[in-house]
Design brief:
Creatine Amidinohydrolase, Chain A, domain 1, six-stranded mixed sheet, Creatine Amidinohydrolase, four-stranded mixed sheet, 16 strands, alpha/beta
Protein backbone atom coordinates (compact mmCIF):
# COMPACT_ATOMS: atom_id res chain seq x y z
CA UNK A 1 0.00 0.00 0.00
CA UNK A 2 1.35 3.40 -1.00
CA UNK A 3 0.35 5.24 2.19
CA UNK A 4 2.35 8.45 1.72
CA UNK A 5 1.33 8.76 -1.94
CA UNK A 6 -2.33 8.18 -1.10
CA UNK A 7 -2.25 10.80 1.64
CA UNK A 8 -0.59 13.26 -0.72
CA UNK A 9 -3.28 12.64 -3.33
CA UNK A 10 -6.01 13.17 -0.73
CA UNK A 11 -4.53 16.50 0.30
CA UNK A 12 -4.21 17.58 -3.33
CA UNK A 13 -7.88 16.74 -3.91
CA UNK A 14 -8.94 18.42 -0.64
CA UNK A 15 -10.45 15.18 0.64
CA UNK A 16 -10.17 14.43 4.39
CA UNK A 17 -9.83 10.68 4.02
CA UNK A 18 -10.35 7.56 1.94
CA UNK A 19 -12.67 5.11 3.67
CA UNK A 20 -12.44 1.53 2.49
CA UNK A 21 -15.29 -0.78 3.43
CA UNK A 22 -16.11 -4.36 2.52
CA UNK A 23 -18.28 -7.34 3.34
CA UNK A 24 -18.04 -10.76 1.68
CA UNK A 25 -15.37 -9.51 -0.77
CA UNK A 26 -17.79 -7.19 -2.55
CA UNK A 27 -15.09 -4.62 -3.31
CA UNK A 28 -12.17 -6.08 -5.30
CA UNK A 29 -10.65 -2.59 -5.61
CA UNK A 30 -10.28 -2.36 -1.84
CA UNK A 31 -8.91 -5.89 -1.76
CA UNK A 32 -6.23 -5.16 -4.35
CA UNK A 33 -5.20 -1.80 -2.92
CA UNK A 34 -4.98 -3.06 0.66
CA UNK A 35 -3.44 -6.42 -0.19
CA UNK A 36 -6.31 -8.55 1.10
CA UNK A 37 -6.47 -12.16 -0.06
CA UNK A 38 -9.41 -12.34 -2.53
CA UNK A 39 -10.07 -15.91 -1.39
CA UNK A 40 -10.12 -15.09 2.32
CA UNK A 41 -13.22 -16.10 4.27
CA UNK A 42 -14.67 -12.68 5.10
CA UNK A 43 -18.06 -12.86 6.80
CA UNK A 44 -18.20 -9.57 8.74
CA UNK A 45 -17.98 -5.90 7.81
CA UNK A 46 -14.65 -4.11 8.11
CA UNK A 47 -13.57 -0.49 7.58
CA UNK A 48 -10.16 1.03 6.92
CA UNK A 49 -9.65 4.80 6.96
CA UNK A 50 -6.64 6.48 5.39
CA UNK A 51 -6.78 10.11 6.54
CA UNK A 52 -5.16 12.88 4.55
CA UNK A 53 -2.96 13.51 7.59
CA UNK A 54 -2.08 11.14 10.41
CA UNK A 55 -2.26 7.47 11.20
CA UNK A 56 -4.75 5.13 9.46
CA UNK A 57 -7.52 3.57 11.51
CA UNK A 58 -9.31 0.25 11.17
CA UNK A 59 -12.47 -1.32 12.50
CA UNK A 60 -13.09 -5.08 12.46
CA UNK A 61 -15.47 -7.59 14.05
CA UNK A 62 -14.21 -9.42 17.11
CA UNK A 63 -14.56 -12.84 15.50
CA UNK A 64 -12.40 -11.65 12.58
CA UNK A 65 -10.20 -9.36 14.64
CA UNK A 66 -7.03 -10.13 12.68
CA UNK A 67 -8.49 -9.35 9.27
CA UNK A 68 -6.55 -6.09 8.75
CA UNK A 69 -3.52 -6.77 10.96
CA UNK A 70 -1.15 -6.57 7.96
CA UNK A 71 -2.06 -2.89 7.57
CA UNK A 72 -0.72 0.00 9.65
CA UNK A 73 -2.94 1.92 12.03
CA UNK A 74 -4.86 1.77 15.29
CA UNK A 75 -7.52 -0.95 15.51
CA UNK A 76 -11.02 -0.83 16.88
CA UNK A 77 -13.31 -3.84 17.32
CA UNK A 78 -17.05 -4.35 17.53
CA UNK A 79 -19.63 -7.09 18.00
CA UNK A 80 -23.13 -5.57 17.97
CA UNK A 81 -24.57 -3.25 15.37
CA UNK A 82 -24.89 -0.57 18.06
CA UNK A 83 -21.21 -0.90 18.89
CA UNK A 84 -20.33 -0.81 15.20
CA UNK A 85 -22.18 2.48 14.71
CA UNK A 86 -20.73 4.11 17.82
CA UNK A 87 -17.16 2.94 17.19
CA UNK A 88 -17.25 3.95 13.53
CA UNK A 89 -18.49 7.42 14.45
CA UNK A 90 -15.66 7.78 16.94
CA UNK A 91 -13.11 6.48 14.44
CA UNK A 92 -14.18 9.02 11.81
CA UNK A 93 -14.22 11.85 14.34
CA UNK A 94 -16.25 15.01 14.53
CA UNK A 95 -15.57 18.72 14.25
CA UNK A 96 -12.34 20.19 12.94
CA UNK A 97 -10.36 17.14 14.01
CA UNK A 98 -12.59 14.72 12.12
CA UNK A 99 -12.82 13.47 8.60
CA UNK A 100 -15.83 15.18 7.07
CA UNK A 101 -15.20 14.73 3.32
CA UNK A 102 -14.64 11.05 2.59
CA UNK A 103 -13.80 9.28 -0.66
CA UNK A 104 -15.36 5.84 -1.11
CA UNK A 105 -15.92 3.38 -3.94
CA UNK A 106 -19.10 5.22 -4.85
CA UNK A 107 -20.33 7.02 -7.96
CA UNK A 108 -23.15 9.60 -7.86
CA UNK A 109 -26.09 8.20 -9.79
CA UNK A 110 -24.00 5.07 -10.44
CA UNK A 111 -22.56 7.00 -13.40
CA UNK A 112 -19.19 5.21 -13.23
CA UNK A 113 -20.43 1.81 -12.13
CA UNK A 114 -16.94 0.28 -12.33
CA UNK A 115 -16.10 1.92 -8.98
CA UNK A 116 -19.60 1.82 -7.46
CA UNK A 117 -19.02 -0.88 -4.83
CA UNK A 118 -20.41 0.61 -1.62
CA UNK A 119 -24.09 -0.10 -0.88
CA UNK A 120 -26.58 2.75 -0.56
CA UNK A 121 -27.32 1.94 3.09
CA UNK A 122 -23.72 2.44 4.14
CA UNK A 123 -23.59 5.77 2.31
CA UNK A 124 -26.87 6.79 3.98
CA UNK A 125 -25.51 5.92 7.42
CA UNK A 126 -22.31 7.89 6.91
CA UNK A 127 -24.28 10.87 5.68
CA UNK A 128 -26.37 10.68 8.86
CA UNK A 129 -23.10 11.23 10.73
CA UNK A 130 -22.56 14.46 8.81
CA UNK A 131 -20.08 13.01 6.31
CA UNK A 132 -19.86 14.10 2.69
CA UNK A 133 -19.22 11.05 0.52
CA UNK A 134 -17.39 11.70 -2.76
CA UNK A 135 -16.34 9.29 -5.48
CA UNK A 136 -12.91 7.65 -5.29
CA UNK A 137 -12.95 7.15 -9.09
CA UNK A 138 -10.04 9.48 -9.82
CA UNK A 139 -8.04 8.14 -6.88
CA UNK A 140 -8.64 4.58 -8.05
CA UNK A 141 -7.35 5.53 -11.52
CA UNK A 142 -4.23 7.05 -9.98
CA UNK A 143 -3.40 4.04 -7.82
CA UNK A 144 -4.81 1.16 -9.87
CA UNK A 145 -4.28 2.19 -13.50
CA UNK A 146 -0.91 3.97 -13.47
CA UNK A 147 1.75 1.51 -14.62
CA UNK A 148 5.39 0.98 -13.73
CA UNK A 149 8.11 0.96 -16.39
CA UNK A 150 8.32 -2.83 -16.05
CA UNK A 151 4.59 -3.19 -16.63
CA UNK A 152 4.72 -1.01 -19.72
CA UNK A 153 7.62 -3.13 -20.99
CA UNK A 154 5.56 -6.30 -20.40
CA UNK A 155 2.86 -4.89 -22.66
CA UNK A 156 5.46 -4.47 -25.41
CA UNK A 157 6.53 -8.11 -25.03
CA UNK A 158 2.92 -9.29 -25.34
CA UNK A 159 2.44 -6.98 -28.33
CA UNK A 160 5.29 -8.50 -30.30
CA UNK A 161 4.16 -12.05 -29.58
CA UNK A 162 0.46 -11.48 -30.30
CA UNK A 163 1.12 -9.60 -33.54
CA UNK A 164 3.30 -12.47 -34.76
CA UNK A 165 0.70 -15.07 -33.77
CA UNK A 166 -2.06 -13.15 -35.58
CA UNK A 167 0.00 -13.04 -38.79
CA UNK A 168 0.57 -16.80 -38.49
CA UNK A 169 -3.17 -17.33 -37.98
CA UNK A 170 -4.06 -15.60 -41.24
CA UNK A 171 -1.49 -17.84 -42.95
CA UNK A 172 -2.95 -20.94 -41.27
CA UNK A 173 -6.48 -20.17 -42.46
CA UNK A 174 -5.15 -19.60 -45.97
CA UNK A 175 -3.15 -22.85 -45.82
CA UNK A 176 -6.26 -24.88 -44.93
CA UNK A 177 -8.65 -23.21 -47.36
CA UNK A 178 -6.21 -22.61 -50.25
CA UNK A 179 -3.84 -25.61 -50.21
CA UNK A 180 -1.47 -26.26 -53.12
CA UNK A 181 -3.53 -29.34 -53.97
CA UNK A 182 -6.55 -27.13 -54.60
CA UNK A 183 -8.68 -29.29 -52.28
CA UNK A 184 -9.81 -27.05 -49.41
CA UNK A 185 -9.75 -28.49 -45.91
CA UNK A 186 -12.27 -28.04 -43.12
CA UNK A 187 -11.85 -25.58 -40.27
CA UNK A 188 -14.24 -23.93 -37.81
CA UNK A 189 -14.23 -20.82 -35.66
CA UNK A 190 -13.60 -23.00 -32.61
CA UNK A 191 -10.75 -24.83 -34.34
CA UNK A 192 -9.02 -21.47 -34.70
CA UNK A 193 -9.73 -20.60 -31.06
CA UNK A 194 -7.87 -23.78 -30.12
CA UNK A 195 -5.10 -22.96 -32.60
CA UNK A 196 -4.66 -19.52 -31.00
CA UNK A 197 -4.68 -21.05 -27.52
CA UNK A 198 -1.89 -23.47 -28.39
CA UNK A 199 0.14 -20.74 -30.09
CA UNK A 200 -0.17 -18.42 -27.08
CA UNK A 201 0.76 -21.18 -24.63
CA UNK A 202 3.90 -21.91 -26.61
CA UNK A 203 4.85 -18.25 -26.24
CA UNK A 204 4.33 -18.29 -22.48
CA UNK A 205 1.26 -16.05 -22.58
CA UNK A 206 -1.76 -16.17 -20.29
CA UNK A 207 -5.34 -14.94 -20.77
CA UNK A 208 -8.91 -15.33 -19.57
CA UNK A 209 -11.70 -16.44 -21.91
CA UNK A 210 -11.45 -16.05 -25.68
CA UNK A 211 -10.04 -15.38 -28.10
CA UNK A 212 -12.91 -14.56 -30.44
CA UNK A 213 -12.88 -15.86 -34.00
CA UNK A 214 -16.12 -15.13 -35.87
CA UNK A 215 -17.30 -15.22 -39.47
CA UNK A 216 -20.28 -13.73 -41.26
CA UNK A 217 -23.20 -12.80 -39.06
CA UNK A 218 -21.29 -13.87 -35.95
CA UNK A 219 -18.92 -10.94 -36.47
CA UNK A 220 -21.90 -8.64 -35.92
CA UNK A 221 -22.14 -9.94 -32.32
CA UNK A 222 -19.52 -7.87 -30.52
CA UNK A 223 -19.23 -10.39 -27.65
CA UNK A 224 -19.59 -13.60 -29.64
CA UNK A 225 -17.78 -16.59 -28.13
CA UNK A 226 -17.44 -19.71 -30.29
CA UNK A 227 -17.55 -23.05 -28.51
CA UNK A 228 -17.20 -26.64 -29.65
CA UNK A 229 -21.00 -26.89 -29.63
CA UNK A 230 -21.75 -23.46 -31.08
CA UNK A 231 -19.53 -22.37 -33.95
CA UNK A 232 -19.54 -21.93 -37.72
CA UNK A 233 -17.26 -23.44 -40.34
CA UNK A 234 -14.81 -20.96 -41.87
CA UNK A 235 -15.20 -21.01 -45.65
CA UNK A 236 -13.98 -19.23 -48.74
CA UNK A 237 -16.02 -16.07 -49.26
CA UNK A 238 -16.50 -15.42 -45.53
CA UNK A 239 -16.04 -12.14 -43.71
CA UNK A 240 -13.72 -12.76 -40.71
CA UNK A 241 -13.17 -10.98 -37.38
CA UNK A 242 -10.46 -11.97 -34.88
CA UNK A 243 -10.21 -10.45 -31.38
CA UNK A 244 -7.19 -11.70 -29.42
CA UNK A 245 -5.67 -10.69 -26.09
CA UNK A 246 -3.05 -12.06 -23.69
CA UNK A 247 -0.22 -11.06 -21.38
CA UNK A 248 3.05 -12.47 -20.10
CA UNK A 249 3.45 -14.17 -16.73
CA UNK A 250 3.47 -11.97 -13.62
CA UNK A 251 6.54 -9.78 -13.15
CA UNK A 252 9.04 -9.75 -10.31
CA UNK A 253 7.84 -8.57 -6.90
CA UNK A 254 4.32 -9.71 -7.73
CA UNK A 255 3.55 -6.91 -10.18
CA UNK A 256 0.88 -7.92 -12.71
CA UNK A 257 1.89 -7.84 -16.35
CA UNK A 258 -0.25 -5.91 -18.85
CA UNK A 259 -2.38 -7.31 -21.67
CA UNK A 260 -2.15 -6.54 -25.36
CA UNK A 261 -5.65 -6.63 -26.90
CA UNK A 262 -6.37 -6.22 -30.62
CA UNK A 263 -9.07 -6.86 -33.24
CA UNK A 264 -8.56 -7.25 -37.01
CA UNK A 265 -10.97 -8.06 -39.83
CA UNK A 266 -10.66 -9.45 -43.33
CA UNK A 267 -12.19 -11.47 -46.16
CA UNK A 268 -11.35 -14.97 -47.35
CA UNK A 269 -10.75 -15.92 -50.96
CA UNK A 270 -12.22 -12.77 -52.51
CA UNK A 271 -12.13 -8.99 -52.63
CA UNK A 272 -14.27 -6.97 -50.19
CA UNK A 273 -17.64 -5.65 -51.26
CA UNK A 274 -18.23 -1.90 -51.47
CA UNK A 275 -20.29 -2.01 -48.25
CA UNK A 276 -17.57 -3.92 -46.41
CA UNK A 277 -15.00 -1.37 -47.54
CA UNK A 278 -17.17 1.58 -46.54
CA UNK A 279 -17.86 0.12 -43.09
CA UNK A 280 -14.20 -0.67 -42.53
CA UNK A 281 -13.06 2.80 -43.57
CA UNK A 282 -15.59 4.43 -41.25
CA UNK A 283 -14.36 2.32 -38.34
CA UNK A 284 -10.70 2.89 -39.22
CA UNK A 285 -11.18 6.65 -39.47
CA UNK A 286 -13.11 6.73 -36.19
CA UNK A 287 -10.27 4.84 -34.49
CA UNK A 288 -7.73 7.30 -35.88
CA UNK A 289 -9.84 10.31 -34.83
CA UNK A 290 -9.82 9.12 -31.22
CA UNK A 291 -6.09 8.40 -31.40
CA UNK A 292 -5.35 11.85 -32.80
CA UNK A 293 -7.49 13.55 -30.14
CA UNK A 294 -5.53 11.79 -27.39
CA UNK A 295 -2.13 12.33 -29.01
CA UNK A 296 -2.75 16.06 -29.46
CA UNK A 297 -3.96 16.52 -25.88
CA UNK A 298 -0.91 14.82 -24.39
CA UNK A 299 1.49 16.66 -26.70
CA UNK A 300 -0.04 19.97 -25.60
CA UNK A 301 -0.04 19.03 -21.92
CA UNK A 302 -3.81 19.43 -21.91
CA UNK A 303 -6.03 17.21 -19.73
CA UNK A 304 -8.27 14.83 -21.69
CA UNK A 305 -11.13 12.78 -20.33
CA UNK A 306 -12.54 9.46 -21.41
CA UNK A 307 -15.75 10.85 -22.88
CA UNK A 308 -13.86 13.24 -25.16
CA UNK A 309 -12.02 10.47 -27.00
CA UNK A 310 -15.27 8.56 -27.41
CA UNK A 311 -16.95 11.67 -28.83
CA UNK A 312 -14.20 12.00 -31.45
CA UNK A 313 -14.65 8.43 -32.70
CA UNK A 314 -18.42 8.42 -32.50
CA UNK A 315 -18.76 11.60 -34.55
CA UNK A 316 -16.90 10.02 -37.49
CA UNK A 317 -19.20 7.00 -37.52
CA UNK A 318 -22.28 9.18 -37.08
CA UNK A 319 -21.28 11.31 -40.09
CA UNK A 320 -20.78 8.14 -42.14
CA UNK A 321 -24.42 7.24 -41.44
CA UNK A 322 -23.82 4.23 -39.14
CA UNK A 323 -24.10 5.84 -35.70
CA UNK A 324 -26.92 3.60 -34.48
CA UNK A 325 -24.79 0.52 -35.15
CA UNK A 326 -21.86 1.62 -32.95
CA UNK A 327 -23.28 0.06 -29.80
CA UNK A 328 -20.43 0.08 -27.26
CA UNK A 329 -17.80 2.40 -25.83
CA UNK A 330 -14.74 3.30 -27.89
CA UNK A 331 -12.22 1.77 -25.52
CA UNK A 332 -11.41 0.41 -22.07
CA UNK A 333 -8.57 0.87 -19.63
CA UNK A 334 -6.01 -1.93 -19.45
CA UNK A 335 -4.27 -2.34 -16.09
CA UNK A 336 -3.96 -5.27 -13.67
CA UNK A 337 -7.03 -6.66 -15.41
CA UNK A 338 -7.90 -6.65 -19.11
CA UNK A 339 -10.71 -4.20 -18.35
CA UNK A 340 -8.92 -2.06 -15.82
CA UNK A 341 -9.94 0.54 -13.26
CA UNK A 342 -8.78 3.63 -15.13
CA UNK A 343 -10.64 5.88 -17.54
CA UNK A 344 -12.57 4.21 -20.33
CA UNK A 345 -13.14 5.96 -23.66
CA UNK A 346 -16.87 6.22 -23.19
CA UNK A 347 -19.70 8.68 -23.65
CA UNK A 348 -22.31 6.07 -24.55
CA UNK A 349 -22.57 3.44 -21.83
CA UNK A 350 -21.31 5.96 -19.26
CA UNK A 351 -20.31 9.62 -19.33
CA UNK A 352 -16.74 8.87 -18.25
CA UNK A 353 -15.28 12.05 -16.79
CA UNK A 354 -12.16 10.32 -15.49
CA UNK A 355 -8.95 11.80 -16.83
CA UNK A 356 -6.74 9.69 -19.09
CA UNK A 357 -3.57 9.73 -16.99
CA UNK A 358 0.12 9.51 -17.95
CA UNK A 359 1.62 6.01 -17.66
CA UNK A 360 -1.63 4.24 -18.45
CA UNK A 361 -2.73 1.80 -21.14
CA UNK A 362 -6.07 1.48 -22.91
CA UNK A 363 -7.74 0.15 -26.03
CA UNK A 364 -9.21 2.18 -28.89
CA UNK A 365 -11.77 -0.03 -30.61
CA UNK A 366 -14.75 1.52 -32.39
CA UNK A 367 -17.03 -0.85 -34.25
CA UNK A 368 -20.06 -1.05 -36.53
CA UNK A 369 -22.34 -4.09 -36.20
CA UNK A 370 -24.99 -4.40 -38.88
CA UNK A 371 -28.35 -5.96 -37.92
CA UNK A 372 -29.97 -8.91 -39.68
CA UNK A 373 -31.82 -6.54 -42.01
CA UNK A 374 -28.49 -6.13 -43.82
CA UNK A 375 -27.62 -9.08 -46.01
CA UNK A 376 -25.04 -10.37 -45.73
CA UNK A 377 -24.83 -9.43 -42.07
CA UNK A 378 -21.38 -8.67 -40.62
CA UNK A 379 -19.56 -6.44 -38.15
CA UNK A 380 -16.27 -4.55 -38.17
CA UNK A 381 -14.13 -3.57 -35.21
CA UNK A 382 -10.60 -2.19 -35.39
CA UNK A 383 -8.78 -2.33 -32.08
CA UNK A 384 -5.39 -0.99 -31.09
CA UNK A 385 -3.82 -0.20 -27.72
CA UNK A 386 -2.25 3.05 -26.56
CA UNK A 387 0.26 3.93 -23.86
CA UNK A 388 0.85 7.37 -22.39
CA UNK A 389 3.59 9.23 -20.57
CA UNK A 390 3.80 12.89 -19.59
CA UNK A 391 3.66 14.78 -22.87
CA UNK A 392 3.19 11.80 -25.16
CA UNK A 393 0.61 9.18 -26.19
CA UNK A 394 1.19 6.51 -28.83
CA UNK A 395 -0.24 3.37 -30.42
CA UNK A 396 1.72 0.31 -29.33
CA UNK A 397 1.27 -1.94 -32.38
CA UNK A 398 0.39 -1.78 -36.07
CA UNK A 399 -2.83 -0.09 -37.19
CA UNK A 400 -4.90 -1.98 -39.72
CA UNK A 401 -5.35 0.22 -42.82
CA UNK A 402 -7.16 -2.18 -45.18
CA UNK A 403 -9.24 -5.31 -44.82
CA UNK A 404 -6.98 -8.36 -44.75
CA UNK A 405 -7.18 -10.58 -47.84
CA UNK A 406 -6.69 -14.26 -47.00
Amino acid sequence: MQLEAIQGALRAAQIDGWLFYDHHNRDPIAGRMLGIDPHAHVTRRWYYLIPAVGEPRKLVHRIEAGRLDHLPGAKGVYSSWQELAATLETMLGTGLGGTRRLAMQYSPGNAIMYVSMVDAGTVEFLRSLGKEIVSSADLVSQFEAVLSAAQMASHAVAQRKIDAILAQAFHEIGRVLHPPSGRAGAITEFDMVQWFSEAMRREGLTWENGPNVSVGANSADSHYEPTAQKCKPIRNGDFLLIDIWAKTEALAAGQPSIHYDITWTGVIGREPTELEQNIFYAVRDARDAAIQTIEQAFAAGRPIYGFQADDAAREVIRRAGFGEYFTHRTGHNIAAELHGSGAHLDNLETHDERQILPNTCFSVEPGIYLPASFQPQFGVRSEVNMLTTAGKAWVTGPRQQELVRI
